[in-house]
Amino acid sequence: MAIASPFMLYTDGASRGNPGEAGAGVVILDDRRQEIATRAEYLGQCTNNVAEYQALILGLSEAAQLGCKNLRIFLDSQLIVRQIQGSYKVKNSALLPLFAKAKELLAGFEHYGIAHIPREENKRADQLANQGINDRFGVGA
Q: Coil, strand, or helix at residue 11?
């Protein structure tokens, strides 16, 4: 059985302060690298790592709703990537339920891979994460 071409998911969480006002950004590209879905969402007050997990969860939920079965995931948070890969333990109690939710969502995909990328390669998701905060406060309308 052939594996469907992978969709690509880029996510980013932004927090202005740590903790501070936070947002999540999600970009999903199809197998032709065309943008098929984006989300910019305000998260309220949280830490940068909570925002990163919330963005990942939002992105995984969006990808599942689109019917993605094979997903390549890219984040600029090395901590989150390594926790999902199992090479780092989740020690922060605030991250444990978010980690569990992300793993639960990942189990719904037939195939997935997750990789850390430099911040420069995640500009679109970063822009959307900041837009989520800005939209909440009427900045840059």
A: strand
